[in-house]
Design a protein that fits this description.
Elements: H1 2-8, H2 12-21, E1 26-36, H3 65-77, E2 82-87, H4 97-110, E3 113-117, H5 125-131, E4 136-138, H6 157-169, E5 173-175, E6 178-180, H7 186-199, E7 203-208, H8 226-239, E8 244-247, H9 251-254, H10 257-266, E9 270-272, H11 284-294, E10 297-298
Parallel strand pairs: 1-2, 1-9, 1-10, 2-3, 3-4, 4-5, 6-7, 7-8, 8-9
The structure holds iron/sulfur cluster.
């Protein structure tokens, strides 16, 4: 802990140069569909989709398989090699399992690697998804253990770890990351990096909070500045040299173009392209231009 904290506080240039040593020159693009949006019974304080808060977002039930196919084909045309089905809710409902499995196999048939982010899993569900051909399951720790009860009261950190264990036991790859800027301390950012090093996910999505009006975190835009966003991404990469740090939500809203490029250059090997769940992202064309400018290759 102490050593990584000292690393976090290195001179910024030195810290980013160190992170760059662990960062490959290839960048993977992935994309997603919000296959079920809103009306979630969970109370995550950062989330526009929780029914605890008045956020007035458009909601919809589980989409049709054809909608997933259409969006996945567009993502592939934009350079994505992975595509995720993302649903709101505590976890997959029994009545949706067959349809979700159909979606997974349809994504694989298009020639994309299938990913799914469907919440907390019950016994046997990870195995069902594995049989359907799912490659990777996404389930964030969101924040470190010592801060988790400040971000939701409807489930625990250990509930999340339980799903992470189920994913690994079923032989699925794991995508597991965080949202930073939710009021955590620097020490807690280091704690997150070390917890992820224990979990060893293949991929670490790195989200920066986009404060949403109506949620308890709506005024949290000052909880982290750009320099500390860079510092956090750098220690994530240094502590997790074998995991891809994936730039995801918040990069457009919370970073200047220059700092976003610095992040791609020094700390990250994957980018979530297009729009996020309920927030707007950066166009795939802009991301391609960034890679070109930085001399990085798009992973195919
Ligand atoms: S983060 Fe997921 S589980 Fe939490 S409220 Fe939002 S949709 Fe529900």
């Amino acid at each position: 802990m102490q050593m990584l904290l000292e690393t976090y506080n290195l001179e910024l240039k030195e810290l980013l140069a160190l992170a760059k040593k662990y960062t490959k020159d290839e960048v993977e693009f992935c994309s997603l569909i919000s296959a079920k949006t809103g009306k979630c019974p969970e109370g995550c304080k950062y989330c526009s989709q929780s029914s605890y808060y008045m956020t007035n977002i458009p909601t919809h039930p589980l989409v049709d398989v054809q909608d997933v196919i259409k969006t996945a084909k567009e993502a592939k045309a934009n350079g994505a090699t992975r595509f995720a089905i993302v649903t709101s809710g505590t976890g997959p409902l029994d009545k949706d399992m067959d349809k979700l499995c159909e979606m997974i196999s349809a994504i694989n048939d298009i020639g994309l690697k299938s990913c799914a982010s469907l919440g907390i899993l019950k016994d046997g569900q990870a195995e069902r998804f594995k049989e359907a051909g799912l490659v990777r399951y996404h389930h964030n720790i969101n924040t470190c253990r010592s801060y988790h009860d400040k971000i939701t009261h409807t489930h625990t950190y250990d509930d999340r770890i339980d799903t992470i264990k189920k994913v690994k036991q079923a032989g699925l790859e794991l995508c597991c990351g965080v949202i930073i800027g939710m009021g955590e301390t620097v020490e807690q950012r280091v704690e997150m990096a070390l917890e992820l090093a224990q979990i060893q996910p293949e991929s670490i999505p790195f989200n920066i909070l986009t404060p949403i009006k109506g949620t308890p975190f709506e005024n949290y835009s000052d909880k982290i500045d750009e320099e500390n966003i860079l510092r956090t991404a750098a220690i994530f990469k240094i502590a997790n040299p074998n995991s891809s740090v994936r730039l995801a939500g918040g990069r457009k809203a919370r970073l200047t173009k220059e700092n976003m490029e610095l992040l791609v250059e020094t700390c990250s090997e994957a980018v979530l392209i297009g729009n996020y769940l309920t927030t707007i992202g950066i166009t795939p064309q802009e991301d391609l231009e960034t890679l070109k400018k930085l001399g990085k290759k798009l992973s195919v």
